[in-house]
Amino acid sequence: LVHGAYSDLRVFAGYAGWGPGQLESEIIRGDWVHALARESDVFGSDPATLWRRVLRRQNGTEALLSTMPDDENLN
User: Fold this and answer.
1) Given phi > 0 = left and psi -120 to 50 = alpha, else beta, which region is 71?
2) Cα 59–chain centre separation
3) Rounded to whole angstroms, what are the CA distances from 31 to 9, 44, 47, 62?
4) What's the average model confidence in pLDDT over 6-25?
5) Given pLDDT bands bounded at 50, 70 and 90, which one contains residue 1?
6) pLDDT tens sequence across 28-53
7) C-alpha–C-alpha distance, residues 75 and 68, integer Å
8) Do 38 and 45 meet the contact criterion of CB atoms below 8 Å apart?
9) Is the pLDDT of residue 72 over 90?
């Protein structure tokens, strides 16, 4: 039983499938944001703002993306 064993635990789970060469093409096109992780990204106490915080410390377009509203129709 692990109930109560952890005070802070964040699990990222999901699935993405790519055809042959698709991921490589997306990376070359710049469709993905590459960012170095900080300890506070992994163990921080505010996961709701994680994406914005990571984008904000990037350069250029990635930093600008951090200012988008949650509902882009409000932009």
Assistant:
1) beta
2) 15
3) 29, 26, 23, 11
4) 83
5) low
6) 998 888 889 998 888 888 888 898 99
7) 7
8) no
9) no
